[in-house]
Amino acid sequence: MLASLRSATLVGIDGRPVRVEVHISPGLPAYNVVGLPDASGRESRERVRAALLSSELPWPMQRITVNLAPGGLRKTGAGFEVAVAIGLLVAAEALPDSVITDLGVLGELGLDGSVRRVPGVLALVDALRRTGCRRVVVPFNNAAEAALVDGVEICPARSLAEVRACLQGETDWPEIPTLAVTPPDHELGGDEPLDLADVRGLPTPRLALAASAAGGHHLLLIGPPGTGKTMLARRLPTIMSPLTREAALEVTRIHSVAGHAPISHALTTTAPFRAPHHTASTAALVGGGSGRPSPGEVTLAHHGVLFLDELGEFAPATLDALRQPLEDGVVRIARQGMSLAFPARFVLVACSNPCPCGLGARACRCDRAQRSRYGRRLSAPLLDRFDLRLTVEPSEPGEPLGASSTVTGEQVNTAVERQRARLAATPWSCNAHVPAGALERLIPLSPTATEAWLTLSGSRELTGRGSARIRRVARTLADLGDRADIEATDLATASVLRADMEAS
User: Fold this and answer.
1) Which residues make Cβ contacts (< 8 Å) with residue 416, sequence separation at least 6?
2) Does 2-168 carry CATH code 3.40.630.30?
3) How far is CA 423 from CA 26, 150, 221, 427, in A?
4) What pLDDT, in 10s, does the model give residues 312-365?
5) Backbone angles phi, psi at 329, to 5 degrees
6) Residue 159 gets which letter from DSSP?
7) What is the spatial distance between Cα 84 and Cα 106, in angstroms, rounded to a whole number?
C-alpha cells in the first residue's frame, strides 16, 4: 500500500519540490524516514501519530516507511508532516487515492492535530505551482501569504481532521483571511512616527539623504556625537518611494523564509530598514551559517536600507565582506554539494565618529596611533563604494527646522518616476545601478557638463569608479530638480557630496 504526495522544502530562499512517498507493509510496527531529513523530519513520528489519534483517525500498526524524494537533496523543517499524515490515510485506504491528485501539501502538525504555520510558504507554494499542482493545502495562518501566488488554489487548514473532511467533500475549505499590508517601519513601535522635520538645519546632509533615497546611492556620514547623523539615517525610509508589487513580493518572500512573522503575515509595500549592531558576525551580516545557509542582514535589507551605526566599531573583516554585495547586488555562498545566491540590492547608510573619542579635530583627545588604528578599520576599497560621503557639523541652535518627510518624499517620488521612465527598457531600476559601460547611453552629458566632469575627475585624481559615481549622483540631483539634462552645477554639487576621505 503506497501513497505519493507533493510537498516542498527550502533551499536558500527558494522552494524545491519534494515527493512524499508513504508505504505501509506487514511486519512489526515501525516508522522510518529516509531521504536526507534533518532532525525535525526524523522526529515527525511522534507528532504525526499523536495528531492522528487526537483527530480520531487511524494509526496503522504496521511497518511504515516515509521517503522524501529526491534522496540527494537535504530536507529541512517539519513542513512535511501534514503530507505524511494524509499519505498514511490514503495508504491505509481511509481516504481515496483520487483526493491527492494535483494536490500539494504543506504544514507542521501539533500533538492535538492542529496544523501549524511554516516559514517561507510563498516560495514553497510557488515551487509546487511550477510542478503542476492546482491545489495546495497550507496552514490557515499562512493562507493570506500563499494566496499571493497566482495560478493555484489555496486550501487553508486549521486541523488535520478539517483537512480530511474537506478532502472527502464533507465540508468546504475555510475562507482565506484578508491580506494585511504592513505599515511603514517608522510608524511601528514608537509613540510618534519619525519625520524628517524633526532634524534642525543640516541642509547639505538633507540633500544627500534625498539623493540617496531617490537614486539608490550609498551614504556615509562622519561627525562628532550629537550632530544628527543617526537621526537623519533613521528617517531615510520615511522619504523613500513605495515598493513596486514585484519588489514587495520579493521582500515578503525573503522575510518569510527568514521566519520574520511581522512581515510574513502580510505584504509589505515599504522599503525594509535593517540596523544590525556593530557586534554582528560576518555570517549574520552577509548570510551563511552551519546547516542550511540562511540570508543575512544584507539580504533582509534587499530593496531597502542597511544602516550601520558606529561603522568604525565593526570588525574590519566583516566590513570588507560587504564589498562584493555592494558591487554585484547578490551574495554567493558555496557549500559542499550546493551553491546559493541571495539577492542583496540595498542602500547602505553608515554613520561613524571621526576618531575613538568622537570629538574630531576641534577637541580630539586621541593620539596619532589611536586615530590611525581607528581609520584603518575602514579600507579604501570600501570607502570608494560610497557615492555620498559627508562630514556633518553641529547645527546652530537658532537654525529652523527643515522640510517634512512628506514634502521631501514627494520630491523623491518625482525623481524616482523620472528614473523609471528613463531606465524602463534596461535591467536597472535606479541611477546607482547603471554600470560604467552604459553611462554614455543612459546618463549622457552635454559638452559643457562633460568638460566639468573631466575637470573634476582630474583635479581630484578620482578612480574610474569614483568619477562614475559622481556622474550618477549628478544625474540624481538633476532628477530631484526635475531637469532633463545634467548641468555643471549638478556635477559640482555631486563632487561636494563625495568628500575625500582616505583610509589611514
Assistant:
1) 214, 241, 430, 479
2) no
3) 65, 27, 29, 8
4) 889 889 999 999 899 889 999 887 767 888 999 999 999 988 887 777 666 777
5) 75, 20
6) B
7) 10
DSSP state for residue 87 in the 8-state scheme: H
Q: Which helix (H) or strand (E) holds 155?
A: strand 153-157
Alpha helices in 379-497 (DSSP H): 380-383, 405-422, 439-442, 447-459, 464-480, 488-496
The answer to whether residues 250 and 13 touch, using CB atoms and an 8 Å cutoff, is no
334: its cell numbers: 558555496
* Cα(188)–Cα(192) distance, integer angstroms: 9
Q: What separation, in Å, do the N-terminal and C-terminal C-alpha atoms of the chain show?
A: 72
For the record, the C-alpha cell of 166 comes out as: 474537506
37-58 core/surface letters (b: 16 or more CB in 10 A; e: else): beebbeebbebbbbbbebbebe
For residues 503 and 311, the answer to whether their CB atoms sit within 8 Å is no
Give the Cα separation of 253 and 488 in Å (integer): 43
CATH numeric code, 185-496: 3.40.50.300
User: Rounded distance, CA 330 to CA 440, Å?
Assistant: 25
What residue spans define the domains of the chain? 2-168, 185-496
Strand ranges inside 183-329, DSSP E: 219-222, 266-268, 273-274, 305-308
Spatial distance between the Cα atoms of 408 and 209, rounded to a whole number of angstroms = 10
Q: Look up residue 277 and give its three cell numbers.
A: 549592531
Q: What are phi and psi of 166, to 5 degrees?
A: -70, -40
Nearest residue to 386 (alpha-carbon basis) of 438, 351, 434 = 351
pLDDT digits (tens, 9 = 90+) for 15-65: 999 999 999 999 899 999 999 998 888 899 999 999 999 999 999 999 999
Question: Strands 338-343 and 330-335: what pairing?
Answer: antiparallel
